[in-house]
């Protein structure tokens, strides 16, 4: 066995001169120089074949159909002397020279095949890691192990990225031209954490529906369900699951036309002044209505959660996120938040989540389990070497309030302003909000934007104008200016084969597309404001 060596002079790949691959199976001879690890499988993927994963997270196991010719390399990396992360890097036969790492979701520990294939089809050499544990996205019980928490927080992605870059270059005998990251939800958090902790890992980072303030948003996911405890139907403030559709409809009827178009999409939820009293039960009606204690409970979820001295713990939900709110509001234990607190913070599987308080959040901040918070606004090391971030968030997100993205962006701008560099932020960081998009994907809006976690649904024209990832790539590579807007697509029934229902621009925060007359479904009838964005 001869270790596979990198040629002394690597060719620099461009999309014009493509690199020539070495045999996939030879990759198992690789000796890593940047990490302790081992490549266990190099398997050729023939063009037109299918692949189905077997991870602990069911959504990662959706069948991947009609693959491009590529090489699938399976490897492990030691994250400490007694822990490892599993990972795979898929290398397209005709590589463009671009490398990408993709992220995970929730607490999932598994290789994210759908996002690997999304990126592979675009010509990236692409890696995903299980982040050092195997679990479904809802299972965070392993967080009680601090080593596993740190691997998930940031360490596994960094180390497997180093290894994957070595594999990509050894396989292609070419140098990586640019390195990218894309992820949604926890994946968004992972990307921001990489920017903050490992500023040389990536040149461009696409951050979707992120949870940068892990300790705080997990607390909010717990707090918001308090009046619902424990799905207690004799509690006068309890809102039954069946009511969310009614509430969503009432919000829509009050706020849909405020943007000039009654189309089922609330373009600017920040301007929606919903009066929940319209769903208040009248004296002779008890069906499909809320009593006053329930209305108070409803109002609470829109409000920011503050400490007694008025310090923000977490923003509340945006109007238009109600329809899918049962995931937090109608479970015996709400998803995600109480798991994070129970296992990573208080380390007690029997923790009573209804005891959450600002003091619990302060404890979590002190521990910062796994170093998961990605809330360090000092991004100078990344920005100063030319790195770029594109962040986006659905404006109807029921799981991670959209205003979390705004609060984080304000923090970033605030930091750079304090050091006299506030004006530089748009030169390396841009935030977009997507009206009518839920968490990462789905909803009545034009939510197909070519990001991670969109189930492989891509715009009909996969170019920088219609794509978050391509607009980031062109910005990083100096082929286009920083994006001002990206055209979102809504497919009929969210099915690509049924054609495009409409396209609508997704604008830079805090702007949203404004109707300027003409055919509502035509993209040209909408434009992004240029004043007020920052
Ligand atoms: C791949 O899956 C598709 C859809 O299930 C099927 O039609 C096709 O025959 C499969 N191809 C191979 C090579 O198995
Ligand atoms: C890669 O390039 C070769 C030579 O141009 C071509 O024959 C082959 O079809 C390409 N493969 C893919 C997956 O595009
Ligand atoms: C939880 O408790 C176990 C058993 O004492 C300990 O090994 C582990 O480190 C603790 N985890 C956290 C997150 O405190
Ligand atoms: C349900 O709520 C009512 C009223 O708030 C309270 O008296 C009762 O103890 C609760 N039941 C449970 C099982 O929590
Ligand atoms: C219910 O009836 C009382 C007495 O008739 C009246 O004062 C009150 O306004 C009514 N409330 C609603 C919501 O209609
Ligand atoms: C009861 O409600 C109906 C319609 O919701 C209304 O027409 C009627 O006047 C109400 N009756 C009383 C007694 O309030
Ligand atoms: C509006 O534009 C769409 C295509 O974007 C077209 O299918 C539709 O017929 C147009 N409607 C009208 C009333 O012109
Ligand atoms: Ca509307």
UniProtKB/TrEMBL annotation:
GO terms for molecular function: feruloyl esterase activity; metal ion binding. It catalyses: feruloyl-polysaccharide + H2O = ferulate + polysaccharide. Keywords: Calcium, Carbohydrate metabolism, Disulfide bond, Hydrolase, Metal-binding, Polysaccharide degradation, Serine esterase, Signal, Xylan degradation. Residues 1-21 form the signal peptide. Coiled coil: none annotated. One of its GO terms (biological process) is xylan catabolic process. Its EC number is 3.1.1.-. Belongs to the tannase family. This is Carboxylic ester hydrolase.
